[in-house]
Structure formats: structure tokens, C-alpha cells
Amino acid sequence: MIVFDLECRAGGHRFEGWFASSDDFAGQQARGLVSCPSCGALDVDKALSAPHVGRKGNQMAVSAPLAEVLPAAAPARQPIANAPLPPEAAAMLKAMAAMQAEALKSSTWVGDSFAEDVRAMHYGEKDAALVHGRASPGEVKELIEEGIPVAPVLVPVVPPGEVN
């Protein structure tokens, strides 16, 4: 994507436009698809603008110390990636995984036929049973719209036969 600074000739209004390429801008302009958002004029041209030139990969940004940049009342930020989970969160996830594993012990893996099987059970074409398997988002939406109760597993399940 490329961002152009644009200006309408009628009112001198400046605005930005995002295009796939310079040719895409020219094509849209020729078809009358580029107009001023302020006055609706179609007579729009690229305005002069300073290009953004990034630093070289081997150059570091010079920045002020964090205390000088953040206001005194700003809350301290904590990293959210590449850091260990708080012990409470880790314990909660382990407990959820254990509960799910226990529940799945009494359930049968039906794989990709999940939607077909639960639909057949719902309409009495097949004996009711606890099952788990795979379904596409579209299949899940259809099941819910039909009033068939389904729920996602909270912790990913490795299908039987696909375990290392």
C-alpha cells in the first residue's frame, strides 16, 4: 500500500488516500473514483509531500530516557510477550486443561464428521453420545442456527493418530 497526500483544486482541501500503487491511483482517478471528502470535487491531484525514509538497519534510534517521555502519572507498563505467566494464570490454565482432559475421557473423537454426527444425534437419526471433533466456523454457525448445542474446547486437542 502507498499513501498519497492529495489536494482538491476546487477548495484546496488536503487529505490522504491509500492505494495499491501509483498506477492504481491513476486508474481510480481516471474513472472518477477519487473525490475530495470535504467538498466532493473530482478534480483531485497528488500534493507535494515529504517522503518517509526509514533508518538503516544498523542504526539505532536516539531516544530520551523513559522517565523523560512518560508523564509522572502514567502507569508502569509490563511486557506481555516473552515473559513468564503470573503463577496464578499458569495454575488456572493447568486446572482448565486437567478438567477438559477429564471431560474428554468420556467423549469419543469423531474427527471431521463432528457436524454431521451431532446433527444426526440432534434429529434422532443416531443415538446420543458425547463426542468431540473438528468443525469449520461455517459448520459451527449452521449448528448453532439450528439450535444444536456445541461448545469449543478451551485447550487444543491433538487428534488420536496424530500424536508423535
Q: What profile does the largest beta sheet have?
A: 3 strands, antiparallel
Strand content: 5-15%
The pLDDT mean sits at: 82
Order of helices and strands: EEHEHHEHEH
Name the strands of the widest sheet in spatial order.
2-1-3
Poorly predicted regions are none
Structural class: alpha+beta
Q: What is the molecular shape? A: elongated
Cα end-to-end separation: 42 Å
Helix content: 25-40%
Please describe what this structure looks like.
With 164 residues, the protein is α+β, with helices and mostly antiparallel strands. Among the domains are: 2-46; 87-145, no CATH class. It contains 5 helices and 5 strands, in the order E-E-H-E-H-H-E-H-E-H. It has a 3-stranded antiparallel beta sheet. Strands 4-5 form a two-stranded parallel ribbon. Strand 4 (108-111), helix 4 and strand 5 (131-133) form a beta-alpha-beta unit. The protein starts with a strand and ends in a 19-residue tail after the last helix. 7% of the residues are buried. The model has no long low-confidence stretch (mean pLDDT 82).
Helix and strand topology:
Layout: E1 2-8, E2 14-19, H1 22-30, E3 44-46, H2 66-69, H3 87-105, E4 108-111, H4 114-122, E5 131-133, H5 137-145
Parallel strand pairs: 4-5
Antiparallel strand pairs: 1-2, 1-3
What would a concise description of this structure say?
With 164 residues, the chain is an alpha+beta fold.
